[in-house]
Amino acid sequence: MSATPAALRMICAIADIEDDVVRRPGDCHGRGVRGRELAMRLWPDAPGWKQVRNCGPHGATTGAGMPRCAGSLAGKLSHLEEPLTRYLGWERGWTLTERGRHLVLEHRRGQ
User: Fold this and answer.
1) Residue boundaries of the structural domains of the chain
2) Exposed / middle / buried, residue 25 (Cβ in 10 Å: 0-12, 13-18, 19+)
3) The listed CATH number (3.90.550.10, 3.40.50.2300, 3.60.15.10, 1.10.10.10) that belongs to domain 5-43+66-110
4) pLDDT of the chain, 111 residues: tens digit per residue
């Protein structure tokens, strides 16, 4: 199975962030990648970061849709026949499966 360019970009971004993050001591799985980190790596200059939306009767938030979009894309990669990502839970985020890591290594060797 070969991944689409968008899927490759997503899993390479997850791998890069995982390589940058210092692991917590005593945590055998480490910390996954959260939606905001992923969105900032994938789309740093996107206009969506400047969009303002209401969040209740007395407030507004900026760029809230970007992490949701990144999480949605990561979720789609976890529902493939051979999943590329795995969700670790609300506080821990996304990580790559062995198949995802293998595709990242193949892609980086080919460059």
Assistant:
1) 5-43+66-110
2) exposed
3) 1.10.10.10
4) 567 888 888 888 888 887 765 554 444 455 778 888 889 989 999 898 888 888 888 887 788 888 888 888 888 888 887 888 888 776 678 888 888 888 888 888 887
